[in-house]
Design brief:
The chain has 259 residues and is mainly alpha-helical. It contains 8 helices and 2 strands, in the order H-H-H-E-E-H-H-H-H-H. Helix 1 packs antiparallel against helix 4, helix 2 packs parallel to helix 4 and helix 5 runs antiparallel to helix 6.
Length: 259
């Protein structure tokens, strides 16, 4: 699994983070998510976004896939901009007919936008070159429950298979003259298609499970990948931790001064 979503099977381009232990990268990404999401002041949040942009620039991602993923994340944030400024009480910034746009609502939506984009950029920059099996192995070594690791791995492996099953049903419906409309027949047909997709997915999962049992599956995840931490991992972890602590410290100081 290449996070940038390239369609070819060639290995992704090398980045400065390729030589680091995958566990270090995953812990750094999760730590960044926790730190950035807890920031309350605008300046530290913008500094966190600048740090994320610097990490993304250092990883040298393909521009189009990067923008596509950022657009997907910001699509959901757009709903916050539509609702939060109009529903959150506070000082009126402007009025749209009978609706009042509050300054506090705009500030909250802007804060969520900045922090969400920073978190997405951090994850993409640090984990873009990690394959799904390597991520699964690293999560297990970090103490994540085996069932959650298997859920992650099988989701990565078979989500495209389920999507292909849905596209097959759509093609079959179109060949039979099905045209979507706002009618009871359309809703009934789409419901039947969703039901068939779920049933076929359950049947496929049962066959996969039986095939795994025949191959000696005992509920444990084995891999030939060798994970070893090196001094460069300690240096990167220390520098990254210092950056996160600096953000939290600045946020605490600014929050105290404003309070």
């Amino acid at each position: 699994m290449n996070t940038w979503g390239t369609m070819n099977r060639s290995r992704p381009a090398k980045t400065p983070f390729c030589n680091l232990d995958p566990r270090t990268l995953l812990v750094a990404a999760m730590g960044a998510a926790v730190c950035l999401s807890s920031l309350k002041c605008a300046v530290p949040a913008c500094a966190g976004l600048a740090l994320a942009v610097a990490l993304a620039a250092a990883s040298g991602p393909p521009l189009v896939p990067l923008l596509r993923r950022l657009a997907a994340a910001n699509f959901f944030i757009a709903f916050l901009w539509v609702t939060v400024p109009l529903t959150m009480p506070g000082e009126t910034l402007t009025s749209l007919g009978p609706l009042a746009v509050s300054r506090e609502g705009v500030a909250l939506a802007a804060s969520v936008t900045v922090k969400c984009n920073a978190i997405v950029l951090c994850f993409l920059a640090l984990t873009a070159n990690l394959d799904a099996p390597i991520i699964g192995c690293s999560l297990e070594r970090l103490g994540i429950p085996a069932k959650l690791v298997f859920l992650f791995l099988f989701t990565c492996r078979y989500i495209h298979v389920i999507g292909e099953e849905w596209r097959t049903l759509q093609t079959a419906a179109r060949l039979r003259g099905f045209l979507p409309a706002t009618t009871a027949h359309t809703y009934r047909t789409i419901g039947n298609m969703l039901g068939l997709t779920i049933i076929n997915s359950i049947d496929r999962s049962q066959r996969i499970y039986e095939a795994m049992l025949l191959r000696g599956f005992q509920g444990r995840y084995f891999t030939v990948a060798e994970l070893k931490a090196a001094p460069r991992d300690c240096i990167f972890a220390l520098l990254f931790l210092c950056a996160l602590v600096a953000l939290l410290y600045a946020d605490t100081r600014m929050g105290t001064s404003h309070g």
